[in-house]
Amino acid sequence: MRPRHAVTYLALITRTALGYAGLIPDLTVLATAATRDEVAGALAQGLALHLLDSAAPAPRPWATGLADLPGDLQAAYAGREVEQLLVSPAALNPVSLQVARAVAASGLSYREVARRAGMDPAALARMTDPFFQAHTMVALQQLAGVLRLALDVAFVSPVDLPPGAVVGAAWRGALTPLLRVRDVPEVLDADLPLTVRSDRGAFQLLRPAAAQPESSGSTVYEVRELSSARRAGRELKAPAPGLAAAGGGQAF
Asked: How many domains does the chain contain in total?
């Protein structure tokens, strides 16, 4: 699912002696890889992890081209062939995030959880990788038993929110993510927990968060992420002279 208003950040990709290097100057996210596509994917993943681990909501992008960057950074790219690409965070697997939060909340080490579940520690580490997509029901059930949790799998019909209804998100590295949602009738007239689908993905609104914004018109909820909107980098239509262009929140 592609969001209608994806947040994108400027990325600069250049050739190196060993392959390709990429930089998102807004957030100083760096990546190197053997191919151009690999470095673009690494930048999207690095961006997603940076925002996930940040103690603050995603900052608004400020650079749209090389000309917007400080002089010293422009000078570092002078005379080089630079590809300008707008990159959005790679989609995170909500199952992996829930596994990581559950293990962290248990107070046990990864090695001990893996031992009790009868799995290799490396396998448990893979299950917490935000980009891992091969979880099995057997492994999840083993993990749930060790952590004294219930595994809840259900197919539900989400409530569709109007575009722009989700106005902020903060993961803050916490066990429970937060989502700021406009006070639209689809939410106000329903009971919680409520499964919703928005242009930022699908979520289950669990309960209002303890801290709420001073301004009215929106509410911050503790949520469970069910699916992320897949985002892709898109081409800059008007590259700066001499540069090669190729396709490729507001605080609470």
From this structure: 3
46: CB partners within 8 A, 6+ apart: 24, 29, 30, 31
Query: Are 85 and 117 contained in the same domain?
Result: no
- Amino acid type, 219: T
pTM above 0.85, yes or no: no
185-197: per-residue pLDDT in tens? 999 999 999 999 9
Q: Which helix (H) or strand (E) holds 182?
A: strand 178-182
The answer to whether residue 240 is domain-embedded is yes
Q: Note down the domain range covering 111.
A: 94-146
Cβ-Cβ contacts under 8 Å for 199 (sequence gap 6 or more): 3, 4, 5, 163, 164, 166, 229
In the predicted structure, residue 250 carries a pLDDT above the cut 80: no
Q: Are 35 and 84 part of one and the same domain? A: yes
Cα-based distances in Å from 84 to 32, 69, 71, 151, 249: 16, 12, 17, 44, 23
- pLDDT tens-digit readout, 9-35: 999 999 999 999 999 999 999 999 999
Residues 179 and 224 both lie in one domain: yes
CA-to-CA separations, 60 to 4, 56, 63, 64, 80, in angstroms, rounded: 17, 12, 10, 11, 28
Helix (H) or strand (E) holding 36: helix 36-53
pLDDT of residue 228: 65
Rounded to 5 degrees, what are φ and ψ at 194?
A: -135, 130
End-to-end CA separation in angstroms for the chain: 26
